[in-house]
Amino acid sequence: MNENLVSGPADRSASRIDVIRASALTVLRKSLVNPSPYVRLHAAESLVAFGYAEAVLPIFELALEREGNLPGQRICVWRVLARAKRTATERTRHVDQICAVCLSPGSPDAASAAESLAKLKYRVDAAHRTQFEHAIERLPGSAIPHGRWLLAVSGNAHDLERLTDLLGDPDPIIRGIAAYALRHIRDTLPTATLERILAVAMAETDPSSRKYCISAAFITASENADFANLKQAILDYLSHGTNDEKYESATALGIRGAAGDLDILVPLLHDADADVQVAASTAVLQILARTGEFTLRNIPYAVA
Questions:
Q1: DSSP letters spanning 60-86
Q2: What is the pTM of this model?
Q3: Which class for 96: exposed (0-12), middle (13-18), buried (19 or more C-beta within 10 A)?
Q4: Which end of the chain has a smaller Cβ tally under 10 Å, C or N?
Q5: CA–CA separation, 109 vs 106, rounded Å?
Q6: pLDDT tens track for 130-186
């Protein structure tokens, strides 16, 4: 590990920050050619959000030729291009491709398409609402939150309530995905929903759900005693958690962390898991952006 990256909590020198910033960007760039389509997806979306679409486009335009019709991979490619393309017409074309898969009966990628549309903040218009509702009804049980999330993006209070209700589902997978979805639309949530997220997070014990509930609550909670407990849970995950727990917790710190959190994030730039490296790199750059030590070049979509 580069000793310049882990000099100690008090070291905020310009040279150390320069090394950290460069190292995080290097991780993201290298991850664009990782064998995992999800690692490539996550790295690409971060780079696009930070204003480096020119590094992403050639790689994903080539991927479009190779993987643009492959179930399981095409949604990842289209989603990145929907963010990275230069014109609205080009971006819309790829969003329309994702919509077509979401609406296609029996498509193996329907759940992934619904999630991607929600992350792209696609608003279902009235003319196509019934089609999407029918498509969502066809999704398997574990994908129900993705469908409700997509409808909730449009801002309908009833749709948001139906998504929030899944926090009480007996299936922990569904509870976790619902919390994950709600943190993505956190700016539209009423106080009652925020309070429910917090209550569920404090009570959740199932590990498959807890990491998402804790992350959602940490991102949305007020600064109080509960917040301190949530922050400690995030730090514990980063120190001792599974790869999924580290990934989600690093993402949470990227959204709401502070300069002092760099000391736990920076070592994760060299984690054994490539996706954890991507999440930590994204979080580091988000924090440096908030402290004025990383300049965002262009942000067509926020990192979430």
A1: HHHHHHHHTT-TTTHHHHHHHHHHH-S
A2: 0.92
A3: exposed
A4: N
A5: 9
A6: 999 999 999 998 999 999 999 999 878 999 999 999 999 999 999 999 999 999 999
Give the model confidence (pLDDT) of 170-224 as tens digits: 999 999 999 999 999 999 999 999 999 999 999 999 999 999 999 999 999 988 8
CA 170 to chain centre: 24
- Do residues 161 and 182 make contact, with C-beta atoms less than 8 angstroms apart? no
Cα–Cα dist 178/160, whole Å? 11
**Whole-angstrom Cα distance, residue 189 to residue 186?**
5
Give the C-alpha separation, 75 to 38, whole Å: 10
First to last CA, the chain: 28
- Written as one letter, the residue type at 95 is V
Task: Name the residue with tokens 């029918």.
Answer: 134
> Judging by beta carbons within 10 Å of its beta carbon (0-12, 13-18, 19+), is residue 88 exposed, middle or buried?
exposed
Whole-number average pLDDT of the chain? 92
pLDDT tens for each residue of 21-33: 999 999 999 999 9
| Distance (Å, whole) CA 227 – CA 249 | 14
The Cα–Cα gap between 158 and 152 comes to 8
